[in-house]
Specification:
heterotrimer, A mainly alpha (about 270), B alpha+beta (about 450), C mainly alpha (about 300), A: about 270 residues, mainly alpha, MetI-like fold, 2 domains, 13 helices, about 75% helix, globular, C: about 300 residues
Chain lengths: ~270, ~450, ~300
């Protein structure tokens, strides 16, 4: 493949550019529509060139409760991720450095909980949450997202920890380092890039989650998924508003996603592909 | 530097939040119809009057509202302090003990001013369980300018046959005008509300006296054929995703020559601020076919207080405020009288300002509400009450599944017969599971 | 290799401590995560199984007691359940095939070193994967596919055709298209990661032997992709089996039941028919279906860790 003819090179380039443009176009169109007026966004003739207005952003940021939902998204995504890391680091450490017969079984069991479809536990969780007063609360959502992401976080941390050279741990233990020292002072700093990208992936997954957010929150604990789904019956009337709200909701995670592409592959394939 | 400011801002924000939490927080679930959106916009007026109460809104499309509110109340979850419900749910939920009665209303509320059939629809065992925010029947909207241009006269009492012939004549896709627009979004409160009135007037009924479904009868068949013919040939594209709000929007943007729907949309389409055709809207009775019975519905969107709320007193203050004479006046004076919530109070209809602004439809609305008889919804006798619904708990599920089949027929995925047979089967099995037949 | 040797010396040291206290330490490390998952996943699942044998309808509080297998029987007799089952399979299989075909094509394209700016291009092409499903649904059902004001309608009119109401006339293909748009990047990223691992000299050798581009791909590259392809199939299956957000904002499962998949069917049973018993029975079927897929996946990953350990 190294020797490619000139026409071939041009063809491959054209194709690659075309594919990128087509894939990205709907997102581009969403962002473009967010700078239109509501009337122009739903015009029968699509407008590519127009004088942009920030009115829809003002509407989203000032007149509607965007910040309330955004804050909930931040709380739930960051909160569940922190909880996942706190629970996941010791577990992954144990699996990587203190392997026993049960390790493989535990790993696979964790993974199998990820295969449990959420609808299967929707009703019980709804009813239990009602009794615990966790319905419509960011805390309730955070706890669920933790359960949802924990298997992926443990697996991913496990694959990163395995890359930490054992000599260092050995040396530390000879120097009398305790288990906690090993985890906090040695493994964590060495695997920090891995932990951070694992965290980013967990944030992406929690931020984009819709099923639980729609079903167990209404107002107080509702996230951006709920906020944006409120626009589903906007049918032509408020498309610019819808686009601005959507853009504001996806942009932070889109940027985060661009930087976590590789970890995402590794995390979602449970380390099968690196 | 910047980060420090951001943190300071967050701390301040949190401080502000705790200050607000000292006031009673009311969470209100409501529909995204224009009148309710207007109510949401008056939040500050209410909060000024009652500084110790703060309002939080959850405004949703009709179908979602029903799901969320029902699940919330039925499981005693208590997320909402005030819910919006209608004439179907109120008596059923009152019976289940899920909502609180409104006894001892203050004298200033003047409960006798509330229109009688509406009061009756929201009562159970003689007690009011929800206060009407607005009430409606259904009628025919048409564009006087287009009718004049085509040289047709809309009769006071049109028939569905006439409506079909007008739709054909007035359909003008090149000018983006559809002959007729009707609801098509599946849901018992969406497409089925209109479609049920069609079934009624074509002589069909949901159940015979023994609770056996009759969805494959000629009444249903004729109603569905007429409905499909109208929307497929002369209706807007994408009808299966149009509910009341969407069609209202289409009509007020001049895309429909006719529209049969709730009388409560009349204000919106007559207001030049929201409607491009405000000057040209005409009104007539809902179309009929075989019988006048059940050709137009009776509905009220009302506010109720769930049994489990922690803030019953504050909730009651809000509900009484939002359904009071004072609220009607407030909206009338602030947003224009066409937007005043219709159908709830006799005083609205004797108000000279309202009469002047709503002259085109005020009388007709009142007459239609008074004449709609939920006890006699069609030609033949039925074991249930309700015009565009059957007042049994199972109806939400029945209406949803039949509504889906009607939408599927509209999308061309089923024939008339297939849709009705499938509906008949699913209604029958639901009723069987609910124990309506001993054998 | 050295790592493994060292690890075993760590192990020897651990063995010097008491076996019981070692177990205790391990439990303290793994325990919290395991207990957490147990409480949040398996306890609710047990409750679902319990409800599936009960009469439980939210709007009929007086209707209680044991139902026996009536909920299961009713769900199986419900034609909508069968169609939801078929829809689920159609959605999963069609989206799988399309995402893999496109993903493979894109991966080969962006793996080509002659493509100018391929990292940036790849990043842009990967973007749909990071968009929240609810927004994906909104973009497509409104901005793109709306039959009056959508971009595709304008394109159709521009070509002199009558605009199509995609979500009403072709609901399932439209939904598959939306899912494919969102998930092709995932397949692409996984396959790309593996493709870049194919040794250059191997390909060069094949090139010197006079093998064409296709032959090189077919015999050298493709065999390397076995495991990643398997991973993509399994993982996408897990996610496709539970698609909800996109359906919720685009078609609400309609028209009719054309796009009602199992999760949506269960959601409707629970939150629209308020029949918790039937919803729970349906949920158990969904769990079984997911587990069939899961067995294959677990087996693959198990062989993976066996190889590495």
């Amino acid at each position: 493949m190294n020797k490619m003819s000139w026409p071939g090179k041009i063809g491959v380039n054209l194709l690659a550019w075309l594919v990128s443009i087509l894939m990205f176009f709907p997102i581009f169109w969403l962002i473009l529509s967010s700078f239109k007026t509501n009337a122009l966004a739903a015009a029968r003739e699509p407008a590519f060139i127009f004088s942009p207005t920030m009115a829809s952003y003002v509407n989203a940021l000032v007149n509607s409760n965007y910040w309330h939902y955004a804050l909930n998204s931040v709380y739930t995504a960051v909160g569940s991720t922190l909880l996942c890391v706190v629970l996941g680091v010791p577990a992954a450490y144990s699996m990587a450095f203190r392997r026993s017969k049960r390790t493989d079984f535990t790993l696979l069991w964790m993974l199998s909980t990820k295969m449990l479809p959420a609808v299967g536990v929707l009703v019980p969780i709804y009813i239990v949450y009602k009794n615990l007063h966790l319905l419509d609360s960011a805390l309730g959502l955070t706890l669920i997202y933790t359960a949802m992401n924990l298997p992926i976080v443990v697996w991913l941390l496990y694959t990163y920890f395995k890359d930490v050279p054992g000599e260092i741990l050995e040396a530390a233990e000879i120097d009398g380092a305790s288990l906690v020292d090993n985890i906090v002072r040695i493994v964590t700093p060495l695997a920090l890039p891995g932990i951070i990208s694992t965290g980013l992936l967990a944030i992406v997954l929690a931020w984009n989650e819709a099923f639980w957010a729609i079903n167990i929150t209404n107002v107080h604990g509702a996230t951006l998924s709920v906020f944006v789904s409120g626009f589903k019956s906007a049918r032509g009337q408020f498309w610019a508003n819808m686009s601005a709200a959507s853009t504001l909701s996806v942009l932070p995670i889109l940027v985060a996603g661009w930087f976590t592409q590789r970890q995402l592959v590794r995390g979602l394939t449970f380390g099968a592909v690196k | 530097m910047k980060i420090r400011y951001a943190i300071a801002g967050m701390v301040l924000g949190a401080g502000g939040m705790t200050a607000a939490q000292a006031a009673t927080q009311l969470t209100i679930a409501t529909v995204n119809n224009p009148q309710m959106v207007a109510m949401q916009k008056l939040t500050s007026t209410f909060e000024k009057k009652y500084p110790d109460i703060k309002l939080n809104w959850d405004v949703m499309p009709e179908n979602e509202l029903r799901q969320k509110v029902t699940v919330d109340i039925a499981t005693n979850a208590g997320s909402y302090d005030v819910v919006t419900l209608g004439a179907l749910e109120t008596p059923l939920w009152a019976k289940n003990g899920w909502i609180q009665p409104f006894n001892n209303l203050p004298k200033s509320y003047d409960v006798n001013d509330v229109i009688k059939p509406v009061r009756k629809a929201l009562s159970y065992n003689g007690e009011l369980y929800a206060l009407p925010f607005y009430a409606e029947s259904s009628f025919t909207y048409y564009r006087k300018d287009l009718f004049k241009k085509a040289g047709i006269q809309m009769p006071e009492h049109p028939t569905w046959k006439q409506i079909s012939s007008y739709a054909k004549k007035l359909n003008d896709p090149s000018n983006a005008v559809n002959g007729i627009c009707l609801r098509g979004m599946p849901g018992w409160g969406e497409n089925m509300a209109l479609f049920d009135t069609m079934v009624n007037t074509f002589g069909g009924r949901w159940f015979n006296k023994k609770w056996e479904p009759e969805l494959t009868s000629s009444g249903w068949h004729d109603a569905l054929s007429t409905y499909l013919n109208l929307l497929k040939n002369y209706g807007p594209s994408g009808s299966t995703s149009n509910g009341f709000v969407e069609v209202e929007n289409l009509f007020s943007n001049g895309h429909c020559a006719m529209w049969v729907d709730a009388t409560s949309g009349a204000g919106y389409v007559s207001d030049p601020k929201t409607s491009k055709v405000a000057k040209d809207v005409g009104f007539a009775w809902a179309p009929v076919a075989k019988t006048k019975n059940g050709s137009h519905w009776l509905w009220s969107w009302a506010l109720a207080i769930p049994k489990d709320t922690q803030h019953a007193d504050a909730a009651r203050k809000f509900v009484e405020w939002a359904t009071s004479k004072g609220y009607v006046n407030l909206v009338g004076e602030k947003d224009g009288w066409v937007n005043a919530p219709p159908g709830t109070r006799y005083s609205t209809y004797s108000n000279p300002d309202y009469k002047k602004a709503a002259g085109g439809y005020a009388d007709l609305t009142m007459k239609a509400i008074n004449q709609a008889d939920p006890n006699k919804p069609t030609e033949k006798p039925v074991p249930y009450t309700g015009i565009q619904f059957v007042a049994i708990p199972e109806f939400q599920a029945l209406g949803q599944s039949v509504g889906q089949n009607v939408a599927a027929a509209l999308a061309g995925r089923m024939s008339v017969d297939e849709a009705l047979e499938k509906s008949q089967k699913s209604v029958k099995s639901t009723m069987q599971q609910s124990g309506y037949y001993s054998k | 290799m050295a790592t493994r040797a060292i690890r075993s010396t760590v192990k020897t040291r651990q063995r010097q401590l008491g076996k019981a206290s070692q177990g205790m330490i391990s439990f303290l490390l793994i325990g919290p995560a395991v207990v957490y998952l147990f409480v949040w996943m398996l306890v609710p699942l047990a409750m679902t199984i319990y409800y599936s044998f009960r009469n439980y309808n939210l709007i009929r509080p007086t209707f209680t007691g044991w139902a026996g297998i009536a909920n299961y029987a009713n769900v199986l007799a419900d034609p909508d359940f069968l169609s939801a089952f078929i829809n689920t399979l159609v959605l999963v299989v069609a989206s799988l095939i399309l995402t893999i075909l496109f993903g493979l094509f894109f991966a080969v394209l962006y793996n080509n070193e002659h493509v100018f700016g391929r990292n940036i291009l790849r990043t842009f092409a990967a973007s749909p994967f990071f968009i929240m499903p609810v927004v994906t649904g909104l973009i497509w059902s409104n901005l793109m596919m709306n039959p009056s004001f959508g971009l595709l309608a304008a394109l159709w009119r521009g070509l002199g055709l009558v605009p199509i109401d995609f979500l009403a006339q072709f609901p399932m293909p439209s939904l598959v298209g939306i899912v494919t748009w969102q998930w092709t990047p995932f397949a692409m990223l996984v396959l790309l990661a593996s493709l870049s691992g194919v040794p250059e000299d191997l390909k060069e050798a094949a090139g010197l032997d006079g093998a064409g581009a296709w032959k090189t791909f077919r015999h050298i590259v493709l065999p390397q992709l076995g495991r990643p392809l398997y991973a993509v199939v399994m993982l996408e299956s897990i996610f496709f089996l539970v698609i909800f957000g996109q359906i919720y904002v685009t078609t609400s499962g309609g028209p009719g039941t054309a796009t009602t998949n199992l999760p949506y069917y269960i959601y409707l049973q629970a939150f629209s028919a308020y029949n918790i018993g039937a919803a729970s029975a349906g949920a158990i079927f969904a769990v079984i279906l997911a587990n069939i897929v899961a067995i294959f996946l677990v087996r693959m990953i198990y062989s993976n860790i066996q190889e590495e350990a």
